[in-house]
From TrEMBL:
Lineage: Bacteria, Pseudomonadati, Bacteroidota, Flavobacteriia, Flavobacteriales
The protein's name in its UniProt record: Transporter
Signal peptide: 1-21
Organism domain of life: Bacteria
Keywords per UniProt: Signal
Length: 303
């Protein structure tokens, strides 16, 4: 029954990989350790390791024939049984429509505290490496090609294990507008980039992840999960007259399906493969985080 459930979710992910959805990992909080599904073996380790290094690569299919490649490095240090801290460095490459851009994205720093056996909280910050206004031939690029949203964000979350289910609730609040200067009116006729994002003011997100790990073998864990993300209000931009304008339809729900495959290698090495795709989307997604699918591979080692 458990394997049938995992197979069903994997089928749903693959079957919907042509629909557009928010590419959550770009925004930051979907891929924090506390938000990702908890690894089963964590509860079985009698002497937990203090250091964990991770390196990952991902590919995504974005709107408007854009292909996205992401990369990240992550380090976690466990100070005690209850307290740990993580830093994560991300980068991204976008290409399509004879435009390409590559750059460092964000630095994510978060502290995790275990309040009880099955309850952990997180406080995190996202620090951008760019102001959200990368240019091409001195013209601002749409958010679809920006290497970072250009915002400083605060992240709050809590993870709770309920029997075999893992439930995570998280909140991400941008603290500033970015410095993007793109106007759709300045683009060529028939441009697919229809949202002006001058001084883009991105709204907050609320996330819920429900996952169910299945130990398929001694070395393999399969974890299907459902990931609804609610964008709490409409995003805004500043028009040519200096007035703040709401981007209609940017508020609302995005529903993603994910599946993780964790394979334990020799010693403390592990390979993780994950795939995500949407089941439902917001009407407007001016932040450039639209994805038809995202596939990720990650290598980690503990000591």
């Amino acid at each position: 029954m458990k394997l049938k459930l995992a197979t069903l979710v994997a089928f749903l992910v693959l079957a919907n990989n042509q629909i557009n959805a928010q590419g959550c990992s770009d925004a930051g909080f979907c891929t924090l350790d506390i938000v990702k599904p908890i690894e089963l073996e964590e509860a079985e380790v009698k002497q937990p390791h203090k250091h964990t290094f991770k390196a990952g690569l991902n590919i995504g299919s974005a709107d408007n024939d854009i292909t996205v490649f992401g990369q990240y490095l992550e380090y976690n240090y466990k100070f005690s049984e209850k307290f740990s801290a993580t830093t994560k460095l991300t980068a991204i490459s976008q290409s399509g429509n004879n435009i390409s851009n590559f750059g460092l994205s964000d630095l994510l720093i978060n502290a995790n505290y275990k309040f009880a056996k099955n309850t952990t909280g997180v406080l995190g910050f996202k620090i951008p490496f760019t102001n959200g206004n990368d240019t091409d031939e001195n013209r601002s690029l749409p958010m679809d090609y920006q290497s970072s949203l250009g915002t400083y964000d605060i992240i709050l979350g809590v993870s709770q294990k309920i029997k075999n289910f893992q439930v995570v609730v998280a909140y991400q609040q941008p603290l500033n507008k970015n410095e993007n200067t793109y106007f759709s009116s300045s683009s060529l006729n028939n441009s697919p980039f229809i949202f002006s994002t001058n001084e883009f003011d991105r709204a907050a997100d609320v996330l819920l992840r429900v996952s169910y790990p299945v130990k398929a073998s001694k070395s393999l864990v399969i974890t299907p999960s459902i990931l609804p993300i609610y964008h709490v209000t409409n995003d805004k931009y500043t028009d040519l007259m200096g007035n703040s304008r709401e981007i209609e339809g940017s508020q609302g729900l995005t529903l993603n399906a994910n599946i993780y495959l964790d394979y334990q290698l020799k010693n403390n090495d592990k390979i993780q493969f994950s795939l995500a795709a949407p089941l439902a989307v917001r009407e407007a997604r001016p932040d450039g985080l639209t994805r038809g699918f995202v596939a990720n591979i990650e290598y980690s080692i503990r000591f």
